[in-house]
Amino acid sequence: MSPDVAVDLVVEALQIVMLLVLVLVVPGLLMGLIVALFQAATQINEQTLSFLPRLVVTLLAVIVAGHWMTTTLMDYCVSVFQRAATLAT
């Protein structure tokens, strides 16, 4: 395997990982911001109030985007194995 192919594989893997993490983290961050604004406006400092909505939104993101995430990872794995089959030793 040449260094160029290895670098391409690593770069593509990192791009996919960043994309998948963003799909899961951004909704939780937005919900955390909304809850923080609500807590600041009402001066309620309950820990479960800040944790539970973020958990629910993250779980909903997994449910909604789970099929797409799985398909993306499977496509990348198939691509890696196809590239590996064409490499000359």
From TrEMBL:
<keyword id="KW-0975">Bacterial flagellum</keyword>
<comment type="function">
    <text>Role in flagellar biosynthesis.</text>
</comment>
<feature type="transmembrane region" description="Helical">
    <location>
        <begin position="51"/>
        <end position="69"/>
    </location>
</feature>
<dbReference type="Pfam" id="PF01313">
    <property type="entry name" value="Bac_export_3"/>
</dbReference>
<keyword id="KW-0969">Cilium</keyword>
<keyword id="KW-0812">Transmembrane</keyword>
<keyword id="KW-0472">Membrane</keyword>
<feature type="transmembrane region" description="Helical">
    <location>
        <begin position="16"/>
        <end position="39"/>
    </location>
</feature>
<keyword id="KW-0282">Flagellum</keyword>
<keyword id="KW-1003">Cell membrane</keyword>
<keyword id="KW-0966">Cell projection</keyword>
<keyword id="KW-1133">Transmembrane helix</keyword>
<dbReference type="InterPro" id="IPR006305">
    <property type="entry name" value="FliQ"/>
</dbReference>
<comment type="similarity">
    <text>Belongs to the FliQ/MopD/SpaQ family.</text>
</comment>
<protein>
    <recommendedName>
        <fullName>Flagellar biosynthetic protein FliQ</fullName>
    </recommendedName>
</protein>
<dbReference type="InterPro" id="IPR002191">
    <property type="entry name" value="Bac_export_3"/>
</dbReference>
